[in-house]
Design brief:
heterodimer; A: 498 residues; mainly alpha; two-stranded antiparallel ribbon; 20 helices; globular; B: 491 residues
């Protein structure tokens, strides 16, 4: 069996195994899901260490870049294959997924008390879907994974979410579906027309051929970009995000922000830009302007929030704007910055959601006004919160700096105005996060209920420590990760130049 | 018609064996029904299923004998075989669903059997006269079935509506036939299609539109759909399950046979064949989906959704009459595949609705609220069917839509593709609403005592749920054998 295939389907198997367990045996269920997700992470580490960064140095398509590749016929009648493989970009995103999932599962042990069995099944199914999206190299396979994730995510928000969860869940699934169906039409067009003399969904073959007329490219870019822009979400398609994030349970928010949004940006760098380069150049200005609007708008709205979770949710709009700006700056720094910023956002925002969840579990409120002076009773919590907030702001030495710096350099190279405008977003980020921090942690404790708050438990410390390792690692030695994606990014640039 | 000169050769009947067997079986049923006193329904359903199993085997072995028979009235080709097998499988599941409702009555089963006999003949009809007779044989037992709940005025209303609409549309269709006959002097479909080419008369257009209206009634095509929600709601649920799939598929079989006639329409008549069916498809799915949003009764919701699904299938027919004949094989495959998928998911959905109605007493959305907690298994099954009807992967409904969209994209009919997409999103809204009510809500306080009791499925229903759920799940992931089989039927 291929290592990648096992990594994709291990969570699914774990989820199926849980179906067989009695629903009263909650500890067994939790244990199975934690072990499965940890094992998946271990497998992805194997992938990481066996990955050859030097492969595909001057690649112009995916063929030379893919590793751990499997290509087996699935539905021969339509020439659909089970084709999976990883290049540098997808490897990093798979790693992010497999890292965050066990942390989410472990983090949910205390918070989820109802319908425990269904929760962990949904979570593990979701993980298979997410890894599958990043690994699929056949368009139908990709689409199936992409859509199959909707159902578990819908349930995670709708069943285990907050008071307004049902509205949020329906909004989430409707928004996503609108975009993805147009993408399906685009996929079918590629099937019939992308490779002359052959009907294929195979991404590698489509990359090799790529003689799509400019006019068709413009349409196809639109069809794919809508699906991805909704997922990212880019301004003005972001309205589903605050609802979904705020109503989802903590672990759901972490996965939503950490991984699901990355499926959108991944879509841009995997499909939209390299497959339709002429259209991408045509639309780049528009995309960058939308990205910058997202950066500034998201930051301003964050600043105004009174609810911590909403604040973090809107900050995602801002941060994902940075990623998009990087991807559409069409130079090495910008694209690499965009890729590493995807990982950074997953780690930092994931950690922020987790931290908000920690205090919500204790006080059942997320309003900033309900706190104040918490640093006195929860010193460890306050310290870790500070580090994560600073990483999100982009303090040198932590991960956020690397990504934002590269993106800004890339944006500046594309057009100085873009770089300057985007840089204001960094300033705003400092304002909204530090201001929130000040109001929550400093000053006198004015509310009695806050006087007896427990500091972090061991479980919470371990989970945060696991994320912090990567936050510092990327901050201090980013080349470990930049090297992984470099050749894939260069391939995208090669295709843009030709 | 020089065929008449040929003396009758009994070997001509060989490909007709399934129909003859079914007719013989039907007579046997009538007699046996008089003898048996107890559990007539269960016995009928069981023996009927065995008969259909036999028919499937025979239909499959008769695969090789391709050609036209009985003086050109009947054609046997891959599609005929497909429909025979399809109707037999659908009938088996329908009989099973009915056995829970009609435990002690034999008549409904006999009516279903005779209707299915009509479908079998319809599948291979190659002549307008055969087609019409078969069509009526499908319809007339249905009218009786719709009114089977004699005590219930809604059932009577359903039956009456069904008859009146049916008679009206049969009349329209016959008038259409007569016009085309007048233009060509033929009743055989291939000869007629050949004769219609190049005829630039408005009688041509009117004839086609009238025939389309007649068939459209059977498949609940807008604007011939008005009877559908009322008949579905008024009929016994087990019968509605049957109505929602089999006679509808029979209508599509007829439309498939008629499609060469439709394809002869030249754009100079004012509208091309593709344009006509595109409009029919777009209207049908849009009306169906918009209608479904407002429904509180699950039976009515599924009725409107079945109108919408007819609209999706019509997308395939819009491609099937495209002047580019290379597209026809793909379109036919898409239509047939969609029908198979639709058979399982729609019968499955009605199965669960029927179960809830029998156990809890109603089919309005209130009875389903909180079902996920009190009865997780049926709720889960219904969720699978509804998600599949939406067309979400990895469920069977997805591949159905996938094929249809593939045909439309291949024909580069972008407007229809966009309308199809918009409709899929609308349908998601109301299907998900039911799922939301089942899993995310608690029962409303007023209905709580009635609704929150746990009921058992019963062996038969449990088995039927499996029979419908498994294909809905498996075909979404692995449809290669089915796709190959259908492909070999079509080419």
């Amino acid at each position: 069996m291929n290592l990648l295939t096992i990594t994709i389907f291990l969570p699914l198997i774990g989820g199926l195994a849980i179906i067989l367990v009695r629903k009263q045996a909650e500890n067994a269920i939790k244990l199975i899901s934690l072990i499965t997700s940890l094992a998946t992470f271990a497998l992805s580490l194997l992938l990481f260490f066996n990955f050859d960064n030097s492969r595909g140095l001057y690649a112009s398509g995916l063929a030379d870049l893919l590793q751990f590749e499997v290509n087996k016929p699935w539905i021969e009648a339509l020439n659909i294959n089970y084709h999976v493989g990883l290049d540098g970009i997808s490897l990093l995103l798979v790693m992010l997924t497999t890292l965050l999932t066990p942390l989410c599962i472990w983090g949910s042990f205390g918070a989820i008390k109802e319908r425990v069995k269904g929760y962990y099944i949904a979570f593990l199914f979701l993980e298979t879907g997410m890894i599958g999206v990043f690994a699929a190299m056949d368009l139908v396979l990709f689409y199936v994974f992409w859509e199959a994730m909707l159902i578990p995510m819908y349930l995670l928000i709708g069943v285990w979410g907050g008071p307004n969860r049902i509205y949020a869940a329906v909004k989430f699934i409707l928004f996503t579906m609108v975009g993805s169906l147009l993408m399906l039409v685009g996929i079918l067009w590629l099937y019939f027309n992308a490779v002359p003399g052959m009907h294929t969904f195979d991404l590698v073959l489509i990359f090799q051929s790529a003689s799509i007329a400019t006019q068709a490219q413009l349409w196809l870019f639109g069809a794919f970009a809508l699906a991805f822009a909704i997922k990212v979400p880019m301004f003005p398609f972001h309205t589903w995000l605050p609802d979904a994030h705020v109503e989802a349970p903590t672990a759901g928010s972490i996965i939503l922000a950490g991984v699901l949004l990355k499926m959108g940006t991944y879509g841009f760098i995997r499909f939209c830009i390299p497959l339709f380069p002429e259209a991408a150049r045509e639309y780049a200005g528009l995309m960058m302007i939308l990205a910058i609007i997202g950066i500034i708008y998201g930051a301003l709205v964050s600043m105004m929030q009174t609810d911590m979770k909403k604040l973090v949710a809107y900050s995602s709009v801002s941060h994902l704007g940075f990623v998009m700006l990087g991807l559409f700056s069409f130079n090495m720094q910008g694209l690499q910055g965009g890729v590493i910023q995807m990982i950074n956002h997953g780690l930092s925002t994931g950690a922020l959601f987790f931290l908000v969840g920690v205090i919500y579990d204790r006080r059942h409120t997320r309003m900033i006004a309900d706190y104040g002076g918490i640093a006195k009773v929860m010193p460890k919590y306050a310290t870790l919160f500070m580090i994560v907030a600073l990483s999100s702001i982009g303090l040198p030495g932590l991960n956020g700096f690397v990504g934002e710096f590269l993106v800004l350099v890339g944006g500046f190279k594309a057009h100085p105005a873009y770089g300057i405008l985007a840089a204001t977003g960094v300033v705003f980020a400092a304002i909204y996060l530090l201001w929130m921090y000040q109001r929550v942690f400093f000053g006198e404790i004015t509310i009695d209920a806050n006087k007896k708050l427990l500091d972090l438990t061991t479980r919470e410390k371990v989970i945060l420590a696991a994320i912090l390792v990567f936050i510092v690692w990327i901050g201090v030695h980013p080349t470990t990760f930049l090297d992984v994606s470099e050749n894939s990014v260069r391939m995208v640039l090669t295709r843009l130049a030709s | 018609m020089s065929d008449l000169a040929i003396s009758f050769d009994p070997r001509q009947l060989i490909p007709f064996i399934p129909e003859l067997l079914l007719a013989g079986g039907l007579l046997l049923f009538l007699i046996v029904d008089l003898i048996i006193k107890r559990r007539r329904g269960v016995v009928s359903a069981f023996s009927g299923s065995i008969l259909f199993l036999l028919l499937i085997v025979i239909a499959l072995t008769g695969d090789k004998e391709v050609g036209s028979y009985l003086f050109g009235a009947v054609v046997q080709d891959g599609v005929t075989v497909f429909f025979r097998v399809f109707f037999a499988i659908g009938a088996m599941i329908s009989l099973g669903i009915m056995a829970s409702t009609f435990k002690n009555e034999g008549e409904p089963f006999i009516l279903v059997l005779s209707s299915v006999l009509g479908m079998f003949i319809l599948a291979g009809s190659n002549d307008l006269v055969t087609l019409f007779v078969a069509f009526e044989l499908v319809s007339i037992p249905s009218y009786v079935l719709a009114g089977y709940k004699r005590q219930d005025p809604r059932s009577g209303e359903a039956s009456l509506k069904y008859v009146l609409f049916g008679a009206f549309s049969s009349g329209l269709m016959l008038y259409g036939f007569s016009l085309l006959y007048g233009l060509t002097g033929e009743t055989g479909l291939p000869a007629m299609a050949a004769g219609l080419i190049g005829i630039d008369s408005h009688a041509h257009l009117v004839g086609i539109v009238l025939i389309l209206a007649g068939i459209g009634y059977k498949i609940a095509m807008v604007p011939m759909h008005f009877w559908c929600p009322d008949v579905y709601e008024g009929s016994p649920t087990a019968i509605t399950a049957f109505f929602s799939v089999l006679p509808k598929a029979a209508g599509f079989a007829a439309l498939y046979r008629i499609s060469p006639l439709i394809a002869t329409m030249e754009p100079s008549l004012g509208i091309s064949a593709v344009g006509l069916l595109t409009i029919a498809s777009a209207l049908t799915m849009t009306f169906g989906n918009l209608g479904a949003i407002w429904q509180n009764s699950l039976k009515r919701l599924l009725a409107y959704s079945s109108i919408a699904h007819a609209g999706y299938i019509l997308m395939g027919f819009a491609v099937l009459v495209h002047p580019n004949t290379e597209l026809h094989s793909l379109a036919t495959q898409a239509i047939l595949l969609y029908l198979v998928v639709y058979l399982f998911m729609n019968l499955g959905a009605f199965l669960v609705v029927d179960l809830v109605e029998r156990r809890l007493g109603g089919d309005s959305i209130g009875y389903f609220r909180g079902l996920g907690k009190s009865n997780p298994l049926p709720a889960l099954a219904l969720a699978v069917f509804l998600f599949s009807l939406t067309g979400l992967p990895p469920l069977a409904g997805f591949i159905g839509k996938f094929y249809l969209f593939a045909a439309v994209v291949k024909a580069e009919m972008w407007g229809l593709a966009i309308i199809g997409i918009a409709n899929a999103v609308v349908s998601l809204f109301y299907y998900v609403r039911v799922i939301r009510d089942m899993f995310l809500y608690d029962p409303s306080p007023a209905m709580e005592p009635q609704v929150s009791k746990e009921f058992n499925l019963g062996k038969l229903t449990a088995a039927l749920t499996l029979v419908t759920v498994v294909p809905t799940l498996v075909l979404g992931i692995w449809w290669q054998p089915l796709a190959e089989w259908i492909k070999s039927r079509v080419v």
